[in-house]
Design a protein that fits this description.
With about 120 residues, the chain is mostly beta strands. It is about 5% helix and about 50% strand.
Amino acid sequence: QVQLVESGGGLVQSGGSLRLSCAASVGIDSIHVLAWHRQAPGKQRDVVAAITSGGNTNYADSVKGRFTISRDNAKNTVYLQMNSLKPEDTAVYYCNADQSLDRVLLGVADYWGQGTQVTVSS
């Protein structure tokens, strides 16, 4: 069983930055895919970014060039650096993990964190 705990959310003004962290209860070098999804009120949960054990990354078109996902295997932590934030980035952000990239991109990863709220004011 993998437990994921997110931190770093909060309130920020439009154009600002935040860095989300997700700490895993196991060594993440054994986890192929780590990712962030987000869910805004009244909307479905969508993938934001994913990173594989080989360092390959996927990003939603809406965040390309603004968000960066990274993983630190030594700290068992995955990060999401969010720059140039917009009000439409407001959502609950969920860390998730799976051995399958397809499952992650479909939003059905095996392991999920509890979520952290990000609110961007205009």
